[in-house]
Amino acid sequence: MTITNDDGKSIQVVVKAFKTLGLLRGFIDFNFRNSKAKRSMNNAIRILELGILTPDPIGCIECLEFNSVRQCYYISRYWEQNYDLDSLLYRGNSNKQISQIILRELAKFTAKQHDCGILHLDYNPGNILTRLQGDKVDFCLVDLNRLKFTHLGLKERISGLVRLSLCPDKMRIIGIHYANFTG
Fold first, then answer.
1. How many other CB atoms sit within 10 Å of the CB of residue 95?
2. Where are the domains of the chain?
3. What angle do CA 60, 46, 70 make, to 5 degrees?
4. How far apart are CA 65 and CA 87, in angstroms?
């Protein structure tokens, strides 16, 4: 989707629509906690401050009815990826050199999140956008409403890595690199 900003320039955005909430859940989100859209926006701001790449947050919209959030939307700038991480992690890649680079950089990206105290509770290749330029890889974290900010011990770090659901060979490679990046 394209919108026009205050300067009259067009920018591409992504609008994430969260499912319609029942009255009780919507009441709780309105009165006692933030909606998924607001959590996504707040988490995006926070992880950007920590140096973790995510599409620039623009805002959120909450549709209210009877003091209840019925529908909510999170809006961010579009971030173009050029590599399907899912294809490497689950279907393999014929280019072994690129595969090794991406696995190493994914371990580094994950270690940096964990070192910053970020645990993504839905950490999977679908929530990690990937841009490959030569031997440089940029990862961009999305679907941010389920982040947990806390000191991560070994158990939490391992649970974060396991969420990738990789085959043993790829998990071993990532695990070795992850250990090197975390000391």
1. 10
2. 2-77, 85-182
3. 25
4. 42
Structural contact between residues 2 and 9, judged by C-beta atoms closer than 8 angstroms? no
User: Residues 85-132: pLDDT tens digits?
Assistant: 887 777 666 677 888 899 999 999 999 999 999 999 999 999 999 998
Q: What is the fold, at CATH topology level, of the domain defined by 85-182?
A: Transferase(Phosphotransferase); domain 1 (1.10.510)
What DSSP string describes 137-179?
A: EEEEE--GGGEEES---HHHHHHHHHTT---HHHHHHHHHHHH
Query: Please, are residues 69 and 45 in contact by the beta-carbon 8 Å criterion?
Result: no
- What is the model's pTM? 0.89
Joined tokens for residue 3: 């919108």
* Residue listed under structure tokens 């919507």: 26
Q: How far is Cα of residue 179 from the mean position of the Cα atoms in its chain?
A: 22
